[in-house]
């Protein structure tokens, strides 16, 4: 039996007037409801686990062997393993955040989202929280297996800084996914191709397999201003491999950049969603399949 | 009462029929592949992905060697460029068969027409194969112009290597496409996973000698290893670093012929079996929601 009770209203006006408490409670329920399938999917879709660990792991292994063939110092293997784990988050952001509204439209769920009384930001927040939980397990698996197989050793002297950098990276990363969710929908049929396009070029610009510094000051500067994956990885490597990884900026400065990015992407997502909602109601074509 | 006489014989699929199906499917595949965007964005998409994949390796190489050891860089560029074909073929074949079943839901209609699914499948995927060849050429061009890759083409080696290699890769793609029809979920991930695994064991971007010893027999048994090696020799005039590079050209080509000759009939027989099973089990109009 459902735990939620319907309260009878004396008329339509009363039914439409919600207290702040009710609005907040309903949006929290929407967040939990949208996060639920992703969290519960951890145990109910074993094939997801297989592919989401296997694919980043195959890529990690290939790059590890390239470094071995080049007789690279061992810390580079650690850079690749850490980059591979962060790749799992990026793939989640691209395929299960940015492209998600597009898939929802194809499956006929999007119009239900638009007509339901909760805010669409709650749906996106639920997707992000669920995705974060789901992908964390994959990322930990990639780090665990990669570290065991390739003998990576970590030297985390400040675990709190590591946690802070990770959290500060995830906020703009998933904020970016929220923003892209609206943009991908607006760009219509390009969703699949755009998601594809946001893989290798971003791995290159984000320094997933090598220190960001190797891209040179100009490109690294652009990355610092735009790409949370790159900034977060650069900061994380400095915390996890102190001495071996020379960052573009000190960890504190990169944390400040990540915090600012978080605000920018979340506000951007909110604005894009407002525009999308207006468009959906005015033109009514955003819910048409294959458009 | 009118009586309709049955013709004495019913002709099966003729070559002109198959050609017509193939041609139509090529046009359809190209339209689906390219008309999602304006030509500029499509060009960016075609160029950016493979170039970025190659540039990742170039940056890794430069970080470690400071630009020394051009022969290994050439090995990386050619391997990375050619691997676009494997991703293109496998992704193209699997995606076309799954899209027709799951997204456009046309598979059942295609199967009940008198034509064979095989030429349609090949035609539908050809657009992605063509795009992947563009990616190969662009990556090699960037390698030659910007990174000092020296091409010394040997047509006598390159042409048979390309024909045999493409045949083997297409056969593998057809097999995986048939396999994916049997799957309940995650079929879309299979080409990437299988191409990724082959990438690892084929010596695409590092010499096979670097792999753990237990993977060496697998590496030597698959045609993609010999296709890459023969193509490298056909493009660069020399083989890969390590053991495989010491083999004579004729031995490499012979091994490519043998592995292809084994893979192609097995893959086609597998595809035929998968299709029969898909008909019997009602999988041709199944939608998995994945």
What does this 3D model show about the protein?
The complex is a heterodimer of chains A (291) and B (290). Chain A has 291 residues and is mainly α. Chain A is built from 13 helices and no strands. In chain A, helix 4 (75-98) packs antiparallel against helix 7 and helix 7 (120-150) packs across helix 8. With 290 residues, chain B is mainly α. Chain B has one domain (37-280). In chain B, 72% of the residues lie in helices and 0% in strands. Chain B has helices spanning 15-34, 39-65, 70-103, 107-112, 117-147, 155-180, 190-201, 216-221, 223-236, 249-280. The radius of gyration of chain B is 21 Å and the shape is globular. The A-B interface holds A 45, 47-48, 50-51, 54-55, 58-59, 61-63, 65-72, 76, 106-107, 188-190, 192-193, 196-197, 199-201, 203-204, 208-211, 214-215 and B 36-37, 41, 44-45, 48-50, 52-53, 55-57, 59-65, 72, 76, 103, 185-186, 189, 192-193, 196-197, 199-200, 204-207, 210-211, 241, 289.
Assembly type of the chains comes to heterodimer
Largest beta-sheet details of chain A:
none
Count all strands of chain B and give the number: 0
Mind telling me the C-alpha Rg of chain A? Answer: 21 Å
* Count of spatially separate domains of chain A: 1
Question: Which structural class is indicated by helix and strand composition of chain A?
Answer: mainly alpha
End-to-end CA span of chain B: 52 Å
Spatial separation of the terminal alpha carbons of chain A: 39 Å
Shape of chain B: globular
Give the averaged pLDDT of chain A, no decimals.
87
Taking the sheet with the most strands of chain B, its summary is:
none
Run of helices and strands of chain B? HHHHHHHHHH
Tell me, briefly, the overall form of chain A: elongated
* Main structural class of chain B: mainly alpha
Largest interface: A-B, 41 and 40 residues
Strand content of chain B: under 5%
- Model regions low in confidence, pLDDT < 50 over at least 5 residues of chain B: none
Would you identify the regions of chain A where 5 or more consecutive residues have pLDDT less than 50?
none
Fraction of residues in H or I helices of chain A? over 70%
Count helical runs of chain B: 10
């Amino acid at each position: 039996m459902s735990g939620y009770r319907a309260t009878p209203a004396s008329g339509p006006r009363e039914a439409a007037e919600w207290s702040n408490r009710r609005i907040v409670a309903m949006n929290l329920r929407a967040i939990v409801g949208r996060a639920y399938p992703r969290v519960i999917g951890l145990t109910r879709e074993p094939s997801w686990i297989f592919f989401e660990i296997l694919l980043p792991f195959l890529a990690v292994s290939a790059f590890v062997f390239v470094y071995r063939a080049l007789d690279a110092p061992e810390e580079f293997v650690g850079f690749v393993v850490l980059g591979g784990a962060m790749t799992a988050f990026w793939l989640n952001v691209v395929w299960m955040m940015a492209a998600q509204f597009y898939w929802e439209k194809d499956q006929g769920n999007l119009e239900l989202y638009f007509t339901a009384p909760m805010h669409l930001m709650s749906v996106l927040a639920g997707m992000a929280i669920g995705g974060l939980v789901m992908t964390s397990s994959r990322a930990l698996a990639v780090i665990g297996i990669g570290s065991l197989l390739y003998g990576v050793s970590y030297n985390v002297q400040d675990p709190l800084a590591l946690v802070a950098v990770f959290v500060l990276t995830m906020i703009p990363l998933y904020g970016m996914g929220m923003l892209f969710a609206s943009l991908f929908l607006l760009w219509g049929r390009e969703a699949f191709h755009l998601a594809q396009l946001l893989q290798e070029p971003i791995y290159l610009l984000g320094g997933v397999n090598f220190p960001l510094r190797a891209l040179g000051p100009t490109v690294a500067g652009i990355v610092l201003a735009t790409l949370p994956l790159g900034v977060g990885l650069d900061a994380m490597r400095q915390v996890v491999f102190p001495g071996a990884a020379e960052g573009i900026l000190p960890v504190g400065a990169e944390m400040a950049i990540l915090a600012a990015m978080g605000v920018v992407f979340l506000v951007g997502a909110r604005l894009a969603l407002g525009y999308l909602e207006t468009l959906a109601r005015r033109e009514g074509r955003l819910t048409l399949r294959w458009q | 009462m009118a009586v309709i006489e049955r013709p004495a014989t019913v002709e099966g699929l003729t070559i002109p029929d198959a050609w017509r199906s193939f041609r139509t499917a090529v046009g359809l595949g190209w339209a689906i592949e390219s008309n999602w965007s304006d030509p500029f964005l499509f060009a960016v998409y075609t160029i950016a992905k493979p170039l970025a994949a190659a540039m990742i390796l170039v940056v890794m190489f430069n970080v470690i060697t400071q630009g020394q050891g051009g022969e290994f860089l050439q090995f990386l560029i050619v391997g990375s460029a050619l691997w676009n074909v494997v991703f293109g073929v496998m992704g193209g074949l699997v995606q076309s068969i799954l899209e027709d079943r799951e997204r456009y839901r046309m598979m059942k209609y295609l199967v009940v027409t008198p034509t064979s699914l095989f030429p349609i499948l090949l035609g539908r995927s050809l657009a992605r194969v063509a795009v992947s060849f563009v990616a190969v050429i662009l990556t090699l061009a960037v390698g030659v112009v910007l990174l000092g890759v020296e091409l010394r083409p040997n047509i006598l080696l390159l042409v048979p290597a390309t024909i045999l290699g493409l045949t083997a890769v297409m056969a593998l793609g057809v097999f995986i496409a048939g396999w994916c029809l049997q799957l309940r979920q995650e079929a879309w991930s299979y080409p990437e996973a299988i191409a990724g695994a082959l990438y690892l064991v084929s010596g695409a971007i590092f010499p096979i000698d670097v792999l753990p010893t237990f993977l060496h027999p697998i590496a030597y048994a698959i045609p993609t290893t010999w296709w890459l090696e023969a193509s490298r020799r056909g493009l660069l005039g020399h083989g890969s670093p390590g053991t495989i590079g010491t083999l004579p050209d004729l031995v490499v080509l012979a091994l490519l012929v043998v592995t292809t000759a084994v893979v192609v009939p097995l893959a086609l027989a597998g595809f035929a079996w998968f299709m029969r099973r898909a008909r019997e089990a009602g999988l041709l109009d199944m939608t998995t929601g994945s």
